[in-house]
Design goal:
By secondary structure, this protein is α/β, with parallel strands linked by helices. It is 44% helix and 20% strand. Helix 4 links the parallel strand 3 and strand 4. Helix 7 crosses helix 8.
């Protein structure tokens, strides 16, 4: 009996010794980041002894820094941050490095990405794939010729810049040189702003054959405005990124033709794994990518269960 008690106590001590805490800071819980956070929480349940503490900054940059400082002061084993602005990177890196706490950026590239110390890393998807897959498919569906309006996220967000640059590069290629961007405006990743911007373009009489949005929420907003105006979506190719449930439903309804799956849950799970490895002193690549996947009406059925 004494031997059994000793074994049980030893197991408890070992478990306590292995227990780790990860602090998670999310800039704002929009559609994508809500799934991102859920992916982290779900994956953490499969890891014995892992404790997760998460906080949301509600879109306030100063609050993002405060949360990071709190986690650093609490000496958590690692921090995962989904920053609103990549330019916060140098400040965040210094806070974590000074505290000796490993840091994982998720979904948004920090501006100091190339200078991150060995205790810090990025988990994201390669944005070169997202806008390229999206624009090539729009070009293909329009046979290389047509007028396009582009809805962009915040311009200080690396994904918005890169996805928009991808569109320009694809349209400069020989196969798509007949594609012409007639308008482009920021709609801040928002369904509401996407809808408002499309209403403005429609009132101004802007004609277009395609709508390319840096994310699905803006694409869905554009669809709402087009339908509300009484204009038919027939012949208009609407494209987004993220493969959210709303976007997949729009493709199923025939209102949208293209999205690109950026696995929020996949990024969340990988971020937890990378944070744990860094906390154990393992050497990792500075950039860790979850692949993008093109979603269209033709392959929609295989993606419906994956909607975010």
């Amino acid at each position: 009996m004494k031997t059994t008690s000793f074994i049980l106590l030893a197991a408890l001590w070992a478990s306590a010794a292995q227990a780790e805490t990860i602090g998670i800071s999310i800039s704002k819980l929009d559609t994508f980041k809500s799934v991102l956070l859920q992916g982290m929480l779900e994956h953490s349940k499969s890891i014995p002894g892992l404790r997760i503490v998460s906080e949301t900054a509600d879109g306030v940059k100063e609050r993002e820094i405060e949360i990071l400082k709190k986690f650093a002061a609490d000496k958590v084993d690692a921090i995962i941050v989904a920053p609103s602005d990549g330019d916060l990177g140098p400040q965040m890196t210094k806070i974590a490095e000074d505290a000796g706490v490993p840091l994982v950026y998720v979904n948004n590239f920090p501006s100091n990405q190339s200078e991150l110390p060995s205790t810090q890393a990025l988990v994201a998807s390669n944005e070169k794939e997202s806008g390229t897959l999206q624009a090539r498919e729009v070009c293909r569906r329009l046979n290389g010729k047509g007028d396009v309006v582009v809805l962009m996220g915040q311009l200080f967000h690396a994904a918005a810049r890169m996805r928009t640059e991808d569109i320009d590069e694809v349209f400069a290629s020989e196969a798509c040189k007949g594609m012409r961007i007639v308008e482009r405006q920021a709609a801040y990743w928002s369904t509401q702003f996407g809808e408002a911007q499309m209403q403005e373009w429609l009132r101004a009489g802007i004609r277009f054959d395609a709508v390319i949005a840096n994310n699905d929420d803006m694409a869905v907003g554009a669809i709402k405005a087009i339908k509300a105006s009484g204009r038919s979506l027939d012949g208009i190719v609407v494209a987004g990124v993220d493969a959210t449930k709303d976007a997949l439903a729009a493709i199923q309804a025939g209102d949208m033709k293209v999205t690109v799956l950026q696995s929020a849950s996949g990024q969340g799970a990988m971020a937890v794994d990378v944070a744990l490895k860094l906390s154990k002193g393992e050497e990792l690549a500075r950039e860790n990518f979850v692949p993008f996947e093109l979603v269209t009406p033709e392959n929609l059925q295989s993606y419906l269960p994956k909607g975010q």
